Amino acid sequence: MPSKPTLAKVALGMVLLPFICLPLVSIVAWHRSDTRIPNDDAGQYTQTAADMYRPLAEGHPLKFVKNLYFKRGFRPVSLPCFAALCLPLTGGDLKMATALTLCCFYLLLYVYSFLILRMSTTLSAAALGAAIVTTLPWILQYSSVFFADVPMVAAMAAALYHAQRCENWTSLAHSAAFGGALALAISLRPIEPWPAVATLLTFLLIAAYKAKRIGLADLRLTLIPLVPLMVLTLLGIFAVVRSKSLAAGLFCPAIALYVWAWTRSRVPLNRCFAATALTFLGGIGLWFLPAVRQTWLWAWSCSFGDLNRLYKGVGQLDFRSAVTTIGTALGGVQLAFLAALAGVALIASVWSHRRAIRSRGTSSPAGAEDAAPQTDRGPAIPGAWVLSAGLLQVVLVILLAAVTPGTDLRRGYVGFYWVFLGLTIYATSPLLKGYRLRTLALGAFAAAQLTIVSFSAIGPVPAALGPVVEVVQAAYPVPQRAEDKSVRTFREALKRLPPKCDVAAMTVAINVYDQRVFDLSALGALSSINRSAVRFGCPCIFETLAEGYRDLERYSFVLLDTRATFPTIPPHKRHEPYSRLSEDLATRYQQNRLTDLGLEEWAKFNIDGVDVVVLKWTTAPATASRPASSAR
């Protein structure tokens, strides 16, 4: 029977309430105040979500459901689906839909972080530890940007928790949820979760095999859906199977064969292990098979193909800069604090080990009254395993970043999260020495961090903090309150463009985020959500300017930021194909040499003191009348 509430428990709940509520309240307040719409990759995701939602806005719900499964953008991941599902709830508001999606995934991450820590420590320590881990700088930053990285981490946190709760595949519900969470993480990021997935499955398979919960028959049964999945994947990659419906339809018999083989088998099989295999392999197959070739071409071009070759040097990191980035952007202060707390607890426990052995009586650790580790749920995955698995992934991504151009540290976010989680398990363990003192230190640190996060969410950070202000603002950017410049540019451009046309959006400031007056992906997302027939794009992959200009001729108009260069642009960014073409166009405009290309100024407007022009090909057939001088 549940214990009755006491005055001490009520007081503890009141003390913990801010630590439980403030992380979510802060991220909601940040989104409520921020006016920026999704840009860059996030803009592409929102454009895909808007394209999915459009049939529903036009009164075609069945086509909307079909789009959720078959409609994919340049990056065929599942994140846009969640935003598309939120768009009806927000009345088609693109900004609110993406914010709602991110807040839901952030809530999922917080809940599972708390539950994982709750299995190893007390209620109060779990609440304080979860508050620190989920308000790390990179987690809050990517909970404010519509990228798939933090949702992927949330899915892997769910997988880690259900892996613990399935108890060597003895719980059917948790086993099925475990496989589903793994499939969700891979659908959000098809490459990055695999090191974590492999290490987690390896640990569980070894433990279950030693405990005789699974055998060779269970492992052989897993190959039944795996073989047709691999065959269909290869057929899709080599374009033998081109139909999306056919690819998904062919996989369904494999799932049916799996269920039939399990029910007809006379060999004792583990139903829980079968549920994990079914939800994991089935989820991956059903999501990726309709777009397997598109996924393969995207992954290949980003890793080995034209995108990597022509954008060589983007995000390239050597060992020193990679480690420095971990220490600054990912929460070096938090990492040092948790490592010191865990180290002190381990050293103190080892030092007093002999004294504890000589003691005849053993006392409960302080704080055990608010529920010590819940041993009735089965043995927890050790903190040492979580920490070592996370460190392995961190080492892999640093090695990859040091030798492969184009790699950034987002590829190791699951590993970074596991490192912090593993350290927190040790730092909050009630079985180690000094639990009460460590909990007080943890509470003080969490209170300071949540204070900074709260100020960043509502802004501005108090100037009384002095030189710390710049560090805080770099770690926790404050929301933007001015109207998004891409929205204003889109509105002004539509006044001067024909109702239906293709426009190339060119700007050297694409990599100067605080100074650019428009972002290409944001313009595309705005066009989709407003159901406009004006389509925005750009030449992207070419080796020479001549090739770039030939690609530019496919567009009827060119939207050009007339600034030619910025001293703050990194050299490797300036030499990207898109940047080189934008700089050459802006330079020609300033020197009145656009006629050499067959371009002329069609319209002009100003955004915050920056001249933006609409250019038109003089050799192309006219598609609209020239705007009046007042529109210029």
Could you explain how this protein is built, in words?
The protein is mainly α. It has 27 helices and 5 strands. The chain has helices at residues 7-33, 40-57, 61-70, 79-86, 94-118, 123-133, 137-141, 149-165, 172-188, 194-210, 216-237, 244-264, 271-288, 292-303, 306-310, 319-329, 332-351, 353-358, 383-403, 413-427, 435-458, 468-475, 485-496, 520-529, 545-552, 571-574, 577-590; strands at 500-506, 533-537, 557-561, 599-607, 610-617. It has a 5-stranded mixed beta sheet with strand order 2-1-3-5-4. β1 (500-506), α24 (520-529) and β2 (533-537) form a beta-alpha-beta unit. α1 packs parallel to α6, α17 packs parallel to α20 and α23 (485-496) packs across α24. The longest helix has 27 residues, at 7-33. The chain is globular, with a radius of gyration of 27 Å.
